[in-house]
Amino acid sequence: MGTYVIGDIQGCYKPLRSLLKKARFNPNKDKLWCVGDLVNRGPRSLDTLRYLQDMDSATEIVLGNHDLHFIAIHEGCAPARTKGTLGKLLRARDCQQLSDWLRSKKLAHYDSIETNSGVRKFLMVHAGFAPQWTLQKTLNYAAEVELALHGSNYKALLKHMYGDTPDRWHDKLIGLDRLRVITNYLSRIRFCDEIGTLNLSIKEGLNSAPVGFKPWYEYERISPKVSIVFGHWAALEGRTSKKQIYALDTGCVWGRELTMMRLENSRYFSVNG
Question: Which stretches in the chain have pLDDT values below 50?
Answer without folding.
Answer: none
